[in-house]
Amino acid sequence: MALIIPVRGFTPEIGEDTFLAENATVIGDVVMGSECSVWFNTVIRGDVNSIRIGNRVNIQDGSVLHTLYKKSTIEIGNDVSIGHNVTIHGAKIHDYALIGMGAVVMDDAEVGENALVAAGSVVLSRTKIGPNELWGGAPAKFIKMVDPETSRELNTKIARNYLMYSRWYTDPDAPADF
User: Fold this and answer.
1) How many Å apart are CA 45 and CA 43, to the nearest integer?
2) Model confidence band, residue 172 (pLDDT cutoffs 50, 70, 90)
3) Residue 82 in contact with residue 60, Cβ under 8 Å?
4) Could you report the per-residue pLDDT of 111-130, keeping only the tens digit for each?
5) Are 77 and 94 in contact (CB under 8 A)?
6) Cα separation of 26 and 43, whole Å?
7) 164 pLDDT higher than 70
8) Rounded to an integer, what distance in angstroms lies between the CA atom of residue 160 and that of residue 47?
9) Which SS3 state, helix, strand or coil, does residue 49 take?
10) Sign of the C-alpha dihedral, residues 82, 73, 91, 75?
11) Is 155 helix (H, G, I), strand (E, B) or coil?
12) Would strands 110-111 and 128-129 be described as parallel, antiparallel, or unpaired?
């Protein structure tokens, strides 16, 4: 069973139909929407400031979400995919964004709607990634604009796939594909 730890008078609030892997850890001032999935070895640490997560967000294996005390918070919109081993530290991620595997997104950075952050990228503090933009590298730089429909379709498909994968753990009789 996932480790859910109250701290400083805050108990994490987990939305309906949300999957928490048995070794995921959710701490403190965290509010998570419905139909999310938090995968193995992920830590969502709302001990020093707030973390707000929308609906149908998947936070994949080994990711760490944390903030700065009294300075930065995390806000994640709906239908967002956070890849394996991502670090998000005090940033805002808008709806339908995708953060690639191993990326780092630092304090007060903002990732726009339908935006893509390439795997392994480092998004420095206060960087503003606009809607429908692809950024990559270390430090991350603008690469190109992406078609809004294509980006939303891709990001929605990934979010829905992770919802399906989570059902394999919570409902063994669920169809393998839907």
Assistant:
1) 6
2) confident
3) yes
4) 999 999 999 999 999 999 99
5) yes
6) 6
7) yes
8) 29
9) strand
10) positive
11) helix
12) parallel
Task: Kindly report, residue by residue over 56-110, the tens digit of the pLDDT.
Answer: 999 999 999 999 999 999 999 999 999 999 999 999 999 999 999 999 999 999 9
pLDDT over 70, % of the chain? 97
| Residue 107, both tokens | 């304090």
Q: Is the separation of the CB atoms in 102 and 83 below 8 Å?
A: yes
> Cα dihedral sign for 59, 127, 27, 96?
negative
Q: Where are the beta strands (DSSP E) in the chain?
A: 3-5, 13-14, 19-20, 25-32, 37-38, 43-53, 58-59, 64-66, 74-76, 81-82, 87-89, 92-93, 98-99, 104-105, 110-111, 116-117, 122-123, 128-129, 133-136, 141-145
d(CA 135, CA 111): 10
